[in-house]
Amino acid sequence: MAPNEKMINKRGIAVSPGVIAGPALVLGVEDFRIPQRFVSVDAVSSEVARFEAALDAVCRDITENEEVARRQLGDQYGAIFAAHYQLIRDPKLIEEIETLIRDKCFSPEFASSRVLRKYAKEFQNLGSRYLAERATDLFDLEKRLLKQLLGERREELSHLTEPVVVLAHNLTPSETANLDRQFVHGFATEVGGRTSHTAILAGALEIPAVVGIGTFLSSVSGGELVIIDGNHGEVIIDPDEATLDRYRDAKARLHSVAERLLSLRPLTNETKDNVRVQIFGNIEFPDEVVHCTERGADGIGLYRTEFLYLEKNAEPTEEDHYSAYRQVVSAFADRPVVIRTLDLGADKVPASEEFSDLASENTVLGLRSIRLSLENLALFKTQLRAILRAGVHGDIRIMFPLISSLLELRQAKMILADVMEDLEEEGVAFRKDIPIGMMVEVPSAAMMASEFAREVDFFSIGTNDLIQYTLAADRSDPAVAQIYNAGDPSILRMIKMVVDAGLESEIPVTVCGQMSSDPKFLPLLIGIGLRQLSVTPHAIPALKEVVRSITLEEAERIAEQALSLDLARDVEHHLREELKKICPDLIL
Ligand code: PEP
Ligand code: MG
Q1: What percent of the chain has pLDDT over 90?
Q2: Residue 358 alpha carbon to ligand 2 centre in Å
Q3: Disulfide: which of 177, 468, 511, 546 matches 310 by Cβ 3.0-4.6 Å?
Q4: What separation in angstroms does the CA of 572 have from each of 443, 518, 558, 575?
Q5: Closest residue by Cα to residue 135 from 52, 238, 218, 197
Q6: What is the CATH architecture of 41-150?
Q7: What is the dotted CATH code of the domain comprising 8-30+156-256?
Q8: Is 197 a catalytic residue?
Q9: Residue 583 catalytic?
Q10: Helix axes 44-73, 129-150, angle to 10 degrees
Q11: Is there an atom of ligand 1 within 6 Å of 239 CB?
Q12: CA angle at residue 359 from 124 to 475, to 5 degrees?
């Protein structure tokens, strides 16, 4: 029986719901996986021999590297490889690996990885920077050994053939966008925050995910069974039988709640006293429209078009844009589809040469989003042309992200007018009266909401960025996850300010940040005056249940009480307790 006394339980930030169990694929440290962890008793001697042959090959490799380094760079560089040689030839280390193969029938890959990672972890824990760096040497040696052992059997991430759960230090939005959706069934990362784009993408892929776990990869070799609980933020490596039973129960329970919620699909989103609340979907990829239609979304409230760049890692052509938008709008012919112009920059940078300048310098306070579009007019105009052209096929609306001043908004609108003129001259069909909206996600835009409301057709509040910029807390950094809080009184006041400005100018206001996907915030948002939300598709059924379980009066009372509190912690507690009364089975 596979030993599981090594069960490890880790906690992080739950960012995409569901539970899944599967073999671990460790990314970054090891871009290939160990397909087989155990060998039969009969094969033990030949497996030990295979390990020794691989070890010899690695040593030959290192010796060659040492000679080249000495010749070309000098003795001190050759010495680096000499140290590697000493490490990998350490009799104690070799003995330990061979014992695991002989006594526990571990495959040489699994045994080598286990032992080298154990030492690497010990080095990391010694508290000295010099020794911590030796851990990197051990990871390097592990890679060399695995390369020899796996040879042709090495499985690249892009060529997966069976389901895995990905464990990584970090996944950039671009890497996440390129994950093999057929076989990656969940992921967990050491870094990352609640509304990091990687977390949002996990929602788009509809796979359980946990981020911000802290250091844990040195305890995993790859191939171990791992449970990812995206509801509670738990990651369990090598679970024991009792834990696996609990996992199966949780999965069955979630499934039955999901089934019940889905049965609400034909019903309208309205409160017990018939106040209509529209629930739109947020999407990153055109094929996500099915996730929205099958759950009865009222349309698309946010299409994050920058993923066209991230998925391909190249600049899309006008036709690429156009066909993506047509695909989305054809699923929602008579319902609104809000296309946000590209929001590239900060952590959303394509991994290609074309964008390399951006990668090294772009920060959350830098030349990102609309600022980048206004500096790169060719890029911006290409996208605007495609949106306007697609506009003739349905109710498409255009939205500018990260607007921070009226000047910026006016510039963006001017460029749009230029593009319309060009299309007119060329005789190309386009939508002339396209509604123009903006995201309110910078505190300056919230403060100036009344002025902005006179110049746009709608607002969409991007709480993910609004929280980060208001509280000066990086949305991707788990170290400040306690500060980064949607329930902070400053955020509630700001949302109310924007909603009031919208009501005054009679323009619709939506919240499209992750906050609106969390059922506990829904009564508050309705009570503040919001009648539209744009959410992660998988959240739609639960939100519908909340809408249909309250009255406007209840929502207003909950909001009034929340607005009277002065600590985020108390707001969260209050909202959770209220949700418990309204829809107890949504509290996990
Ligand atoms: C937001 O900032 O709330 C938002 C919806 O935009 P993104 O998450 O893409 O930055
Ligand atoms: Mg944003």
Answers
A1: 66
A2: 18
A3: 177
A4: 22, 11, 12, 5
A5: 218
A6: Orthogonal Bundle (1.10)
A7: 3.50.30.10
A8: yes
A9: no
A10: 120
A11: no
A12: 65
